[in-house]
Write a structure and sequence with these properties.
By secondary structure, the protein is of the alpha/beta class. The protein has 4 domains: 169 residues, Rossmann fold (3-Layer(aba) Sandwich), CATH 3.40.50; 62 residues, Helicase, Ruva Protein, domain 3, CATH 1.10.8.60; 118 residues, Zinc Finger, Delta Prime, domain 3 (Up-down Bundle), CATH 1.20.272.10; 138 residues, no CATH class. Helix content is 51%, strand content 8%. The protein is built from 25 helices and 10 strands.
Length: 571
Amino acid sequence: MSYQILAHKYRPQTFDDVIGQETVTRTLKNSIKNGRVANAYIFCGPRGVGKTTVARLVSKMLNCENPLKDGPCNKCAQCREINSGSSIDVLEIDGASNRGIDEIRTLRENVKFMPSAGKFKVYIIDEVHMLTTEAFNALLKTLEEPPPHVKFIFATTESHKVLPTIMSRCQRFDFKRIPPKLTYERIMFISGQEKIDIDEKAALLIARSSDGSLRDGLVILDQMISFSDGKISRDDVLELLGMVHRESIFRLSLAIIGNDPVKVALLIDELINSGKDPVFITNNLIGHFRDLMILKTAGNPTADMAFSKDELDEMKGHAGKVSLEETLYILQNLSQCLLQMKGTLFTRAPLEITLIKLTRRGDVLAVRDILDRLEKLPVNTGEKPFDPAEPAASPPAADFKKSTGPAMTDEKERVEERMTRAQGPAGDGLDENTGPDEEDPLNDEKLLWESVLNYVKSRKMSVYTFLSHAKPVEFNKKRVILGFGQNHGFNKEVLEAKDNKDLIKEGILNVLGVSPKLEFKVLEFLGGSSEEGTVSRKKAAKIKESLNPHIQKVIDVFGGHIIRDNMEGNR
């Protein structure tokens, strides 16, 4: 008898033998048991996860003469014929080589005939996404209303290429990748059945290299049996598959984490000279640091990770030596390195540049470090330098005079006096007798804004640095809108942080005596000078009166404000 490969010899013969697809098998078993079998099914998922195997199980269950609770009997004539591929009632069609409209027309003619021996005719079309659009359209009517004795089962690895009209006529099942742990357990089980001496670490390597495909794992196991001399070791797997030794990746990882460019350069030279491809090394490093990222985030390995106890302990040791932010930075640069490798034949250089750059990542300052340094800069106001370690309690508005000193108090009194003078008799309008130099309270806007800036400057220098680029486009007791030019969008993002925004609101409260609504906006016209293009409140009121009444209503409803007069030259 000819040799039968392990993937075929140990193909599941019942639904309970299928691993990693419990949701799919449970639903199909119940639908067959309750007589609720659909006209057509479509099985979607990566290669080697059991799509065709489950399709055959459904075919056997539908035609089995003595079905069992968990699957077909595998003993009757129908089961044996389906297992051997000789059944004329269960037809397996390759969609890649039978993709034209002529083949589908032939299929449509054949579905009219009754099954020869079984209860149903089952058409299993593998890689159905390879069918042409015309073939799909020719299949639509037959698929929606096939004869009662016909069932369709489609399988595809690229479900997005299947027409929506086909998808809507099928019950869809999504098959998952097989986790490395389950693949490892299956390999160890089959090795025990075949009396194969395999090292635990070798089985783990095979499981990891299978990339979620159990069939790929069993094909590698078959290959290793032929390669080894009685015992499959980890070194045998590494040699046959051309993989990078785990120890080499660990040493390279430690050199990167430990900021040792000399060791990194030597290790890369050693790996490449031993025949390892730079792209393959990069992918291995990305996988390693991705595992570190998950360990640092979740604390424990996830289902798609498989380690021996020694490997897990070493991985946790690596995770303890690098921060999550650094790990993310390393992953980002390695991913960018892969893109750079696609544009050059000399792939070694991008890898070496990236890894040596990563060993010098301490020279790259984070935003938090930049802010800390800004806070430590002395304030050039004739006062003592600002000390971020010194507590700076924020006094309430009622205690403003006591907490800010005579200079700030005098300034606030002058502001209040001018605002009172600028307010009309009603207390909330403009004084009609206001002179040209004192049009409205916002004529004191500069003084008010400088007071807020001085307050923030005395509390936190870094916030003042970003705030100094803002322009108060609206400044009153109900609302304060601070505008930024398009090249200062980053300033806006920093100031919107809760602590920074609270400090600015505190400064406004101490200057105005109230806490208006505070907003930050990036405005196109502020890209140039901060004084350019603005209009006073009184002028804005006159412009508003000249506008269409409907536009005036929109401005009132949405709280709009006039910033500049583009029509001035046309009046």
